[in-house]
Design a protein that fits this description.
The longest helix has 19 residues, at 95-113. Helix 1 (12-23) runs parallel beside helix 2 (41-49), helix 3 (63-72) runs parallel beside helix 5 and helix 9 (274-285) packs across helix 11 (323-337). Strand 2 (27-32), helix 2 (41-49) and strand 3 (54-57) form a beta-alpha-beta unit. The strands form 4 sheets. This protein has a 7-stranded parallel sheet with strand order 3-2-1-4-5-6-11, sandwiched between helices. Strands 12-9-14 form a 3-stranded mixed sheet. A two-stranded parallel ribbon has the order 7-10. It is an alpha/beta fold and 340 residues long. It has helices spanning 12-23, 41-49, 63-72, 88-93, 95-113, 150-168, 202-210, 238-253, 274-285, 309-315, 323-337; strands spanning 3-7, 27-32, 54-57, 76-81, 119-126, 172-179, 181-183, 217-220, 232-233, 235-237, 261-266, 272-273, 291-294, 303-304. The chain is globular. The protein binds uridine-5'-diphosphate-4-deoxy-4-fluoro-alpha-D-galactose. Uridine-5'-diphosphate-4-deoxy-4-fluoro-alpha-D-galactose binds next to helix 6, helix 7 and strand 8.
Length: 340
């Protein structure tokens, strides 16, 4: 049984990926510093898979802790590196926190991964690297545009760090997965998204409004050049996204990769407007959502959705769930955690 390290494995995407890895028979070790997650997520994972992953609470910013971890676990066959800060607004307020959290930790991890017998590395990247792409849908060869935020910059620089390291270390095999907008929860509703404070992202804001925690959703902008004036995004079910990680890992473990650094868009290929997301929520919840139009949000691009041909044909992965499936699972999760 191959042992896989998942950093940030108690977070939203990390926890769903741990479930899929365990379902595929991998032994999983989670590192998480619990800065934006809870140890109770371990119970959720265990209840779904009937297997408790190994968990170590480690702050990856402490280099010696990373070194000590790998001394004790030199039999790791692959690393999926989620651990990072991800709030765009916070990154603008506190850029050094973001550069330290997201880049120092990446460097410490890579140094250790290079010394493993099997140096397989999957990096959480983002469609934010494309900025407002000139053509839709976005292919992996679309130019990387100047980042809108320090958070986005950490994803761009993170990819560059890996590219440069791969160039001079042929034993290192890496894949950067560029996520579009992950939403939803495990269909069991035993794990899901747990935003701290007021949600910044659309779907948790919608479900919290539906659950009565928020009065009204503000729809940021109604005069964009789209079908209904609201922004377009590619919303992908987190379970589909989690499965993409397992397939990417298997590609590296089986040495099926074409080069030692590859990138893949992970989205559905379908663009949805904010109003379409609201409609999907209203349908699955059989309720009407209280929302109002508000000014545009700074930094929002008009439209971003993926061309998924590379992921479909080269990686052999495809998103299976619809927007409604994802909204259904997000609503089920919200109802469960609010005891509705
Ligand atoms: N939106 C609202 N109201 C809200 C929240 C969001 O109308 O209360 C709208 C946004 O304006 C946007 C859409 O819903 O049009 C999606 O917004 P999210 O915040 O959910 O997602 P983003 O597309 O802004 O965020 C994604 C990733 C981030 C990444 C960012 C880069 O989730 O990790 O793209 O732009 F940094």
């Amino acid at each position: 049984m191959k042992k896989i390290l998942v950093t940030g494995g108690l977070g939203f995407i990390g926890s769903h990926t741990v479930v899929e890895l365990q379902n595929e028979g991998f032994e999983v070790v989670i590192i998480d510093d619990l800065s934006n997650s809870s140890e109770t997520v371990l119970e959720g994972i265990t209840s779904i898979t009937n297997k408790k992953p190994i968990f170590e609470k480690i702050d990856l910013k402490i280099k010696s802790s990373v070194e000590d971890f790998f001394k004790a676990h030199n039999d790791i066959s692959g690393v999926i590196h989620f651990a990072a800060s991800k709030a765009v607004g916070e990154s603008v307020e506190n850029p050094l926190l973001y550069y330290e959290n997201n880049l120092n930790t990446l460097i410490y991890m890579l140094k250790e991964v290079l010394d493993l017998q099997e140096s397989n590395f999957i990096f959480s990247s983002s469609c934010t690297v494309y900025g407002q792409a000139d053509t839709m849908p976005i292919t992996e060869s679309a130019p990387v545009k100047p980042a809108e935020s320090p958070y986005g910059n950490t994803k761009q620089i993170g990819e560059e760090i890996i590219v440069d390291t791969c160039k001079v270390n042929s034993n290192l095999n890496a894949i950067a997965l560029r996520y579009f907008n992950p939403i939803g929860a495990h269909p069991s509703a035993n794990i899901g998204e747990l935003p701290i404070g007021v949600p910044q992202n659309l779907v948790p804001y919608i479900t919290q409004t539906g659950a009565g925690l928020r009065d009204c959703l503000s729809v940021f902008g109604d005069d964009y050049p789209t079908s209904d004036g609201t922004c377009v995004r590619d919303y992908i079910h987190v379970v589909d996204l989690a499965k993409a990680h397992v397939i990417a890992l298997q590609r590296l473990l089986n040495r099926k990769n074409d080069s030692n650094f590859e990138t893949f868009n992970v989205g559905t290929g379908v663009g949805s407007t904010v109003l379409e997301v609201i409609n999907a929520f209203e349908k699955v919840s059989n309720s009407s959502l209280n929302y109002k139009f508000a000014p545009r949000r700074k930094g929002d691009v008009v439209s971003a959705y993926a061309n998924t041909t590379r992921a479909n044909t080269v990686l052999g992965w495809k998103a299976n769930s619809s927007l409604e499936d994802a909204m259904q699972s997000a609503w089920k999760w919200e109802q469960k955690i609010r005891n509705l």
